[in-house]
Design goal:
With 125 residues, this protein is of the alpha+beta class. It has helices spanning 52-66, 84-98, and strands at residues 2-14, 28-40, 106-114, 117-124. Helix 1 crosses helix 2 (84-98). It is elongated. The mean pLDDT is 97. This is 6-carboxytetrahydropterin synthase.
Length: 125
């Protein structure tokens, strides 16, 4: 299995909406790092798994969408607790809409909210 990873970082804000969230229940910032890992068993005719320029463009679009935003205010989080786990799924859905290389069979999105805590959503594409 081949894999190709691209990453970026940006600052965004959120607050948790679960009962008794403690200090996480007030708006606060995170320096998020987002990793996209594309996987597949075959390379294309140019010996690429994924067009890395397309992967980077998708990641840049993600960073532009969420940089300096309050996640709670965005429509993709409406009705959801904007946890880092939910954020990983939201990013997964956005990336799989735009990066459609036939050789990519799986995508893992890992979002780090600080240097010691991250969540990953991965699935077949």
């Amino acid at each position: 299995m081949y894999s190709t990873t691209v990453l970026t970082a940006f600052v965004a804000q959120h607050y948790l909406t679960v009962p008794d969230p403690g200090p996480e229940g007030v708006p606060h910032s995170h320096h998020f790092e987002v990793e996209l890992t594309f996987r597949g068993p075959e390379l294309n005719e140019y010996d690429y798994l994924v067009d890395i320029d397309d992967a980077r463009a998708a990641l840049e679009h993600i960073a532009d969408r969420y940089r300096d935003q309050l996640l709670n205010d965005l429509p993709e989080f409406e009705g959801y607790n904007p946890s880092v786990e939910r954020f990983a799924r939201v990013v997964f859905d956005r990336v799989t809409d735009v990066v459609t290389d036939d050789t990519v069979t799986e995508l893992a999105v890992t979002i780090w909210e600080d240097e010691t805590a991250a969540a990953t959503y991965d699935a077949a594409v």
